[in-house]
Amino acid sequence: MRLTIEELEARAAEAREMLSACALCGHQCAADRASGELGRCACGAVAKVASAGLHPGEEPSLGPHAGTVFFSGCNLTCVYCQNWQISQEGQGREMAASELAEAMLRLQGEGAANIDLVSPTPWVPAILEALVIAGRRGLILPIVYNTGGYDRADALRLLDGVVDVYLPDMRYSWGRAADRFSGARDYPEVNRAAVREMYRQAGDVVFNERQQAVRGLIVRLLVLPNGLAGVRDSLSWIAENLSTATWVSLMAQYAPAHRAEEYLELARPVSDGEYRALLDLADELGFENFYTQAPESRQALRPDFRRARPFDGGA
Question: Is 12 contained in some domain?
Answer without folding.
Answer: yes
